[in-house]
């Protein structure tokens, strides 16, 4: 499968929202309350994505296939966390393209941005029970800390992982 990575455009909002909602619904059942997953709506997320794109506060790259359908995305930017100056805010893929190199391609593009901007480290927050934790562990975090938050009255645990930009860049180059 050919994967094409490019910057998000305003007209991508609906497709990105679809990937966002679909990814949550296929990845987090049994982890995140069903009531929350059922409340996720593509149209509402599309409106949020339009606002995020217009605000330009973060950089989002989309992955598309040869039919120009968006199959995944990564959002990156400055971190509000003291552990690192940069952050991967979101990395979501459609279920049928997971474990096929799309996430790696998106992460490579993010690392190039971080490198060009002079960032030395970055963080990723990922649910402890995320089935894709092996992907993040393979990138060799330098530090883990545990955080919790609540969704629909359920406490959710997440890892806050700190990575070296240069180390991840080198790892993804192989």
From TrEMBL:
InterPro entries: Acyl_CoA_acyltransferase (IPR016181), GNAT_dom (IPR000182)
TM ranges: none
Gene3D superfamilies (UniProt xref): 3.40.630.30
UniProt domain N-acetyltransferase: residue ranges: 3-166
Protein name: L-amino acid N-acyltransferase YncA
UniProt organism field: Geomicrobium sediminis
Upper taxonomic lineage: Bacteria, Bacillati, Bacillota, Bacilli, Bacillales
């Amino acid at each position: 499968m050919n994967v094409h990575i490019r910057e998000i455009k305003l007209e991508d909002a609906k497709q990105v929202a679809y990937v966002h909602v679909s990814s949550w619904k296929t990845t987090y059942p049994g982890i995140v309350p069903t009531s929350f997953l059922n409340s996720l709506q593509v149209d509402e997320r599309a409106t949020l994505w339009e606002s995020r794109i217009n605000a330009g506060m973060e950089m989002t790259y989309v992955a598309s296939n040869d039919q120009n359908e968006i199959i995944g995305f990564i959002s990156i930017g400055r971190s509000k966390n003291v552990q690192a100056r940069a952050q991967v805010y979101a990395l979501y893929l459609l279920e049928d393209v997971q474990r096929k190199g799309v996430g790696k391609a998106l992460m490579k593009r993010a690392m190039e941005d971080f490198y060009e901007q002079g960032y030395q480290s970055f963080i990723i927050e990922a649910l402890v029970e995320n089935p894709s934790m092996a992907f993040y562990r393979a990138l060799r975090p330098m530090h883990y800390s545990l955080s919790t938050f609540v969704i629909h009255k359920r406490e959710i645990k997440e890892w806050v992982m700190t990575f070296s930009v240069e180390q991840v860049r080198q790892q993804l180059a192989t």
